[in-house]
């Protein structure tokens, strides 16, 4: 659990059991519901011992893993895991729909319109909105976690190898990754001639676009993070070698925990917070038809009875069809009949039964279990060697036996702290 002092400065994370004792004794209050953060009322950072922590980031085209851990003498202890789900595909789809609607409205009753798209200049380092979204949201989460934990450094994974740069015999950035050997031909012919409409490595379809998304954003992400905190980069091959050597299964948060130079991982988080990007609503106050013309008008207000769409709420319904306790994101209506979306479905409740837990912040949160970890007493026989300076001088020390982190696991059945259960469940 994240801990803040009485002035909001981050302290070292604590265990759920200790957080419950601090809340029960009145020494702490809840500062945030998700991720769960408490604030001490009688402690300052000057009177506390803060060792600091680090962040590991495993960027991807659809999901990005973030791990908060402490590192000392090559030993890492995982404290918190986050999996962030992008919505770059949705952004691209919305932009295409908007362009189609505008094109239809402008040319439907117009015989000729001179093209003007060549008159618009793009600044250096420009990224498409769907790609810029991946960079901005990752940087935003680094800023968030730095407010809740004493982060001192960031480790970012880059690609395992860059076949495009190797074939071009020079360093590539941004949109240059989209300019291959057949640049200038039609997209369908390019895919047919270059990739055969499938990945040349595994045969999966749709891979070239996802790979280009990661390649185009890697340098922009590194520059943005390096302006905030000391940032080091490592290859995907080293991450896989670290993860295999430590016996960690394949997941986004475990990859983030294994990024960079390390000797062993002794603790890990058994539960990961999945943050899906949902956005903060829209400025438009109409709903359009398939031709792009306004069909319905939305209310000018976004809040009704003190709630807004996307707020994290909890409703306790005593009787009726939706009887029970429901926790999730709410959709508000002027009539007072709200809808709460949980894992079990959509539940219609009255606003009088709803209690606010957290204002909408553009994400939908859920909790999921990490894959089981295989005990690692040493490097696996089938683990590929990694030629580094340390390994050239001798074998690296064998990792210690992995044990579950007390940060996100309970040894016995005890009542969880407020808001630590599944975010979006019903009972």
TrEMBL record:
Positions of region (Disordered): 375-427
Organism whose genome encodes this protein: Streptomyces bambusae
Keyword Cell cycle (UniProt): no
Lineage: Bacteria, Bacillati, Actinomycetota, Actinomycetes, Kitasatosporales
InterPro entries to which the protein is assigned, alphabetical: RNA-guided_IscB-like, RRXRR_dom
Domain RRXRR residue range list: 2-180
Pfam families linked to this entry: RRXRR (PF14239)
Superkingdom to which the source organism belongs: Bacteria
Example GO molecular function: endonuclease activity
NCBIfam families per record: guided_IscB (NF040563)
UniProt entry keywords in alphabetical sequence: Endonuclease, Hydrolase, Nuclease
Protein name in the entry: HNH endonuclease
Keyword Membrane: no
